[in-house]
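re: the backbone from monday

yeah here it is again, tokenized this time
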């Protein structure tokens, strides 16, 4: 299958350009959409054009447009010289039995892993897609620096950011998350997803659980620190997110973690937009080192 991206639309944005693409994915076996914001620094030929990039993983029910239209990230990213990448949250068009029956499993709910259980294992290969296909494709076809890639995300995407950062520490130089699902093996969303995608053997779930992954480490993979923001008015906090478990695992591993609690803030993009600048600056500092 041809993996070169097809440009669907582009829009001038803060001196740079906001683009939306589609391509035929070999890892997924279906067309996949993603969005990219290129800052003005990539438009200046004499500057060399290679800029650091952040990949953002969105949450349940979202798609490749959600972050770019709701998070308010492009203005500061343009100033900092950061490219932004947002893939879709799952394959679409597989038409598997039950893939649209619920909002927290199937379409829009990939949990950013490679499924091992049929029929999901054929197309639901988001970890391989992001790390082994999408990022190499973009660093070869766009003016992005492959040695300066960070990752962040929200909710299910926060889970994806933390787990992919821990599983591929050589690929990512920085990581942060908004209201992440920190211990999916211990919450209803995660247990439903892991059972469906990976099977009932809970011993293999730990490889995709940020708290379990961090608990197994004896050295800090991100010496510059991990940033996590959590709203105290988030209706999913108690049952689904469990940031305190990830905090304890980081302390045990010696991993610096800034876990910030915000009274009054919920799980929405109003919360994300409020603290977006802090996350972009967090990544910009580490990607400049």
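seq for it, each position gets an aa:
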């Amino acid at each position: 299958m041809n993996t070169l991206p097809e440009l669907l639309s582009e829009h001038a944005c803060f001196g740079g350009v906001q683009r939306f693409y589609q391509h035929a994915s070999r890892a997924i076996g279906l067309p996949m959409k993603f969005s990219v914001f290129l800052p003005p620094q990539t438009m200046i030929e004499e500057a060399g054009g290679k800029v650091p990039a952040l990949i953002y993983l969105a949450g349940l029910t979202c798609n490749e447009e959600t972050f770019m239209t709701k998070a308010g990230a492009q203005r500061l990213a343009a100033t900092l010289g950061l490219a932004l990448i947002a893939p879709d949250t799952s394959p679409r068009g597989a038409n598997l039995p039950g893939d649209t029956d619920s909002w927290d499993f199937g379409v829009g709910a990939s949990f950013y892993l490679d499924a091992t259980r049929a029929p999901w294992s054929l197309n639901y290969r988001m970890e391989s897609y992001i790390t082994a296909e999408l990022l190499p494709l973009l660093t070869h076809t766009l003016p992005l620096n492959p040695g300066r890639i960070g990752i962040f995300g929200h909710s299910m995407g926060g889970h994806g950011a933390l787990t992919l950062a821990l599983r591929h520490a050589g690929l990512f130089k920085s990581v942060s998350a908004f209201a992440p699902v920190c211990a999916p093996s211990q919450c209803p969303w995660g247990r439903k997803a892991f059972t469906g995608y990976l099977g009932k053997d809970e011993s293999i779930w730990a490889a995709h659980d940020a708290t379990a992954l961090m608990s197994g480490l004896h050295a800090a993979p991100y010496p510059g620190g991990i940033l996590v923001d959590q709203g105290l008015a988030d209706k999913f906090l108690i049952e689904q997110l469990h940031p305190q478990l990830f905090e304890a695992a980081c302390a045990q591993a010696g991993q610096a973690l800034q876990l910030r609690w915000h009274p009054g803030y919920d799980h929405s993009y109003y919360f994300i937009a409020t603290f977006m600048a802090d996350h972009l600056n967090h990544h910009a500092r580490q990607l400049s080192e």
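Residues 158 and 177 are 5 Å apart (CA to CA). The first helix runs from residue 66 to 70.
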